[in-house]
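Any chance you could type out a protein's amino acid sequence plus the matching backbone structure tokens because I've never seen that pairing?

——
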Amino acid sequence: MPNPTEIRLHAASRQMEIHFDDDTRYTLSYEFLRVHSPSAEVRGHGPWQETLQTGKRNVDILSVDPVGSYAIQPRFSDGHATGIYAWDYLHSLGRDHDKLWAEYLEKLVDAGASRDA
């Protein structure tokens, strides 16, 4: 799996820019990263246990801590800080962004929920 060569946070646009050593580059919104957190709080502990994240449109990333040499752990402004984003997971989020985002928006509609707090 590719490894990141650069990670930049853009506070004004609320986006994380990630460059990988396979020459791919992704720009992911903080909201997208938050609603796709790999944490048990979001994904659950098994199939069909995920919790739909709502009201995250204006979430910020306050800091990002390295986890060994394989991941990062963002600290979000809503207090969420338990997701460990491994390099392969970040790469897959970038690669599959459009599909994942469309699925998320559809789930919000189905639940009668909103991206706004």
About this structure: The helical segments are 30-35, 40-43, 87-95, 97-111. Strands lie at 4-10, 15-20, 25-29, 61-67, 71-76, 85-86. The mean pLDDT is 95. Residues 52 and 97 are 17 Å apart (CA to CA).
